[in-house]
Amino acid sequence: MKNRGGILICTTVLTILLGMSVVTENAKADTVATADQSVLSEQTTSTTPNEPVTNPVTTDQQRSNPVDDALTVPTPEVGQQPGGNWNIYPSSATPQDNYFYYVNQDWLLKHANDQGTDNYSIMENKTDNNLEKDLSDISSGNKSADSATKQAADYYQKYLTTLNSKKPDIQSFKKDIQEIDSMKDYSDLNSNMEELINGNLNTPFLITAEPVLTNNLKNRLTFSVTSATNKLPTLGSDDEAIATRDLYYENMPKLFRMLGFDEVKTKEILDNALTFADLISRNSDSSLVDKDPGYKQNIVSISDFENHFSNVDFLQYISNSFPSATDIRIDDPTFYDNYNNILSKPNFEKMKDWMLVSDVLDNYYVFGKTGKGAVQNLVQEASDTNEGQALDATSDGFRTILSKYYAENNLNGKTTNRIESLVDNIISAYKDNIQDNSWLSNSGKTQVLNKLSKINVKIGGPTEIKGVDDFSSIKFSKDASIYDWDKQIDQYIGQSVEKDFTTTNEKGMWTMASYEANANYNPTENSITIPAGLLQDPIYSESDSDSQIYGSIGAIIGHELSHAFDNNGSKYDENGNYRDTWTVAVRAKFDELTQKMVDEYNGIKFDYLVENGQQTLGENIADNGGLNVALQVAKSLSDFDAKEFFSAYAANSRMIPGYYVESDYATDEHTIGPIRINVALQNIDDFYTTYNIKPGDAMWLDPSKRVRIW
Fold it and tell me: Locations of Low complexity compositional bias (predicted)?
């Protein structure tokens, strides 16, 4: 099954989550706000590395201490930088040396051999295990649930049974593959376009529906690159590329053989697919997709769009599916401009073979044990347990249904009330801060306060299932294959999105999984979401003191609110439309302050990683604002304990880094956890008085270099 937005869903252009981030283009990954849109995940995407976690570098200092060796980060010999001293062992750290090490030393020692582990991955593993057991019990009848959850549980069990099968049912998939293979020219592609787009099959283009950036109550079509989930190997000459291609040629024939292709034909298909994938890569520019959405809105009329293509005819598809559409946004202008060269008549067979291979790769699970074994080293998700894969697939299709179930069974009213109170107190303090702000003009304060007062707060999970998430009309046959079930879901979603294209978009819909250990701010809705999955130990416990609560979940809430006023979120108005309401003078002052923050983080060295202050600016602004406002509220408590507050904050981002984790952070929007904690605290004056930190201490930062924006 394609991920939800792989077919035409897009209720959100941009969603920001709270910690480690991933930009996904919809493909069996968490879509949060749906569809093949850029999704900026914020804080708690697990730090589990994409590569083996063996650290290839061991220093002499590390060898000398077998207990702490995995935890010591060698810092280059440079002048004192923000972030503390990383040339010490956690067990000997003091607040003056390295606060992250000082607070988390016991946890770091416990997990010393678990590179890639952090608080959030541990929480999510626990949640996933519980959900897997619940779904299994519900499907077998050992646990009761409503009909929607029972349907999701049956899907989970069907998917899991397929993965475990030595003789899976591939007949429906085989039939679709044969139909693709039988295409003779572009006229065949054109006549089958609606079935391809709304079904479970890949095309070298994607047409989605999304809210209009400047008027999110209305929808607009978007044209972008390829609907395939998993990328094919590249034609690169480096060792990794060669090794991946070797695995591709060794294993993919096993699956094509099951589909009835002979060895010679398969080799030709595999060759053509790589050539076409390379052609797409060389004639597109994904860097434009992730830019500020206001960078350049490439909008063309439907008639100009339809006339742009030589061989591919979108006229009938758009006329039938979206007859009211008047224009379309071009996600990647480079791809659009080169499209006729990519899909030229001489390239038809290559395109068709790319479709065959990408469909087989994306639907490997329908081949059962053989399929998983074949793509083990080609598809990242295939390295997960069968239960984990089945849960991820179920989450892709039944996210809102599972979210309602999880929240109802894992969040009590007492916790909800406490979090609601925290949110109210933090928003109130934020308003006070804006009133006292020294750099905003009066009109600027009015605009910020107006937006702050209209932020929609969602806590826990959805309370109802409606619209495109309501699968009650879908009847699954027990005798059908998992592929058949996926097609039913995809076709239903595609038809629903087509039907709803002209309706006014409903705001406040729950789009984030309630079982995520995460939180988000959605600028296109001006909303924050605090899901039930985040409200568990160690981030939240009913037994925690108020000081601890504000240092932990309170700072997270403040972080999400601050995203409304970071370098990206501040360009959306109170209704979530892309409209900069600030004056030129206010924007200039804000840019001046944020440049100080860029300079503060830029160039900080952490083991293999060098921080990029511009790349991480939005998250650093949110950390700074969230920590300040949470501290402000906490200090008003009669029993406030500063050490409890700061230590709870430092425990939020506990993690065991390593080479591959740090490599991921090199392109991430977030500062790596240890640096993230220490530098955020170095900007807080109360932190210095609480721990008697003085000039010359590694955790000291001169007052002139401390930054506060909100």
Answer: 44-59
